Amino acid sequence: MRLPFSILLSCFLFSPKGGLADAPYDQVQDNPTWSHQNLDDVRADKYFHESTFAEHYDGRFGDRKLNYDERRGHLTALMQTYISTMNDIGAETWIMHGSLLGWYWSRKILPWDSDVDAMVSEQSIHHLAAYHNMTVHTFNLHNDDAEDNSHRSYLLEINPHYVNSSLDEVNKIDARWIDTTTGLFIDVTTLRRNATADALGIDGSMMVKDRHHYNYDDIFPLRHTTFEGYPVKVPFMYADILIEEYGEKALSDVYFENHIFDAELREWRPLRYAELNLYQNDGAVMDAHYWAMSIASLYSPD
Amino acid sequence: MTQKLGQEQVEEKETQYEYTPQGPGLDTRQHMTTSYGHKPLIDQVTNGWRGDVKIPEDSGDYEPGFCDIEDEGSCPNVSRDIVRSRRFRRMLALVVVAAILAYYAWQAYLRPRLLEDWEFKEGFMSGRGNGTYGMARSGDFDGTAIKDIDAALVPGGKADHDGKRRLVFIGDIHGCKKELLHLLDKIDFDSAKDHLIATGDVVSKGPDSAGVLDELIRIGAESVRGNHEDRLVEAAKTMLDDDVDVPSAAITSKGSSKDAALLKHMKPRHLRFLHDMPLMLRIPALPLAKHPGKHHIAEEITVIHAGLVPHVPLEKQDPYFVMNMRSIDHKTHVPSALHETKKGNSKPWFNIWNWYQDRIDRGRSVDGFHVYSYAEWLGKQASHGWFEKVRHVLPSKHNDKVTPQVAVYGHDSKMGLQLHRWSKGLDSACVSGGHLTAMVLDAKGKTEITSVKCKNYK
To answer: Of B75, B92, B122, which residue constitutes the final position of a domain?
Structure first.
């Protein structure tokens, strides 16, 4: 098929530095009014770019960093819509890293988290790339804070460098699930066979392009569970993976980033100002203050 | 005019104020020369008081003080004499030797003991660090988490007044059917009065998993769920469809493809047996057991596959760790499937378990230990009055709510048979050429260990 010359010319003129990059702003969005994407990255081959105002936002779709409450609401919706879509497509995906830690503690995204992490299998990424690249999925979300109680759209963009299994400094992320209202996204990476280990005869060795290494038996068979109220899968040896990545304290500390884990509700919540003083001045004293603080949310009006 | 007045005044004074100056208290203002010829009063001042005061003179003897060197009885001289004496030097030598011995005794024996005891204790103490294991929601368990044994099977229980029944605990069988039959024969297993409880991992790795399951079903045995059963139960959810091929080991792993092949051979009764395995099995204290000790169990028994974290309630234990743990981080009490984690604070879980059960068996208090629910914390607040505090200092025979329990487990073939007062590890690495071990518990609480040698199936 012969492409018209004008299209070829515009592709040449508007693509940054001549290499592959994520779809140009004017082809995907007209709100915000101009692109906040940081395209000044000197590394030509880098496909996905981040915004100029913050690291975990896509500048083509967002123009500002969200505050704590907005971010929590949007991240939750981001996760739920991703899970729902992947279940519908039938792609095998599971949550990892920060999201897995949130699942372990409270079956919810950790409140201070600014992104969501998911992984897919090699079969899944091939299927998604072949049939679902650049698809936009629109959901009707019923929120309590009903400013945009209407539709939200999510873009699934696959990095063409996913076919390359070798370690790549600039293209570690294989796909993104992007919230077109705010620019928040989910980084999706692929769990691949570790070809070098296979050649050496090591059994079941897997790797990810962002330099994580796992054993096949650490991840599979995946466990069926729930996260943010939706059915998800988690790796088989979830606890040891979390300890390996974050250390034992990640599974035992109940105070973190000015949040406290409310053991009665089994959820993380931010410390109130008075509690913050208690925590900072008296040190993190479990038991004596912890249980008093833990039930504060149940017995005092927020 | 003034002059005349002055003279008159003086004359008047003479008649009115006639007195002779005597002794001290003289008003020195009156030393003006008077015209009537008296001596100046100052001359009549005697200063007799001057004789009472001794004026220290620069020359001559003075009284030696307490610290003066010249005096024989002064402090420095006396001290010097003592130090020079033989008796004192002997005593000093003894004291120095005793101090050196005490120092080495401390360094070599006492201090390591105290440090070790503290290392065991610190993970329990609330107020140290930011939190502890057992607070997070942790994983899910698909099945019965805690099961209490059928009362009719308890030796010496309601259905066994004669105390003839026995309980037989067997470690990781891993599909070694021949060895299992040999062992049951060796202990004279009689399914009418004996009940077999396996500690999990009865399948996988070995030659005849389906055969072992059939045998267990036949004799009415039960088992707790092990990590390999966990794998099979989870894999069964997706791999049982007829049109799903067994993926090769090249794209998965050796263990996984073997498990998939095994699943294809299993019948519904096998899968049901696997799914019915609880996470933990509780056996109450045997009514007829009297003398607890290392070879007698008179306390409650909990059977699990891999381990338990002490002091954490059973409901709060993460199912993954109950089926996989081999060690505990001694500061946070977070377990791990590895023997040693990157942090380097790992201890074998049963060491901390035994330390804790010993402590509550001796009646030592667990005040200041972590609590895991608001209700428990409220209870502790109530017992903070002065009387309660005094009561808790004295060791009591039986600590109110917490009773010690014995843990029977398998899973750790590297550590092999681990028989302690409060924990019995029965995995003696049968499938890799070790032994298959059984612990037989009779109604009196006596335990007997029997093993058979296994072939190496690895």
So the answer is: B122
Q: What is the pLDDT of residues B406-445, one digit of tens each?
A: 999 999 999 999 999 999 999 999 999 999 999 999 999 9
Q: pTM value? A: 0.81
- Closest Cβ opposite residue B252 in set A104, A216, A266: A216
Number of domains in chain B: 3
Cα–Cα distance between B197 and B184 in angstroms, integer? 12
pLDDT at A166 (0 to 100): 87
* Alpha-carbon dihedral A24, A25, A26, A28, rounded to 10 degrees: 90
- B166-170 and B194-198: which strand pairing? parallel
Choose the closest CB to A238 out of B255, B320, B345.
Answer: B320
Whether B305 and B408 share a structural domain? yes
Q: Which of residues 87-146 of A touch B (CB under 8 A)?
A: 104-107
The verdict on B170 and B267 lying in the same domain is: yes
Same domain? B190 vs B108: no
Which residues, given as ranges, of chain B have pLDDT below 70?
A: 1-37, 50-66, 68-73, 128, 242-243, 383-401
Domain that holds residue B164: 138-453
Compute the half-sphere exposure of residue B112: CA atoms within 13 Å on the CB side of its CA: 5
Q: Tell me if chain B has a CB within 8 Å of the CB of A55.
A: no
Tens digit of pLDDT for each residue in A140-178? Answer: 887 655 555 678 999 999 999 999 888 888 889 999 999
The residue in chain B having the minimum alpha-carbon distance to the alpha carbon of residue A289 is B127
Is residue B43 located within the same domain as residue B67?
no
Provide the edge-to-edge strand list for the sheet that holds B194-198.
B222-223, B194-198, B166-170, B435-442, B447-453
How large is the ipTM? 0.86
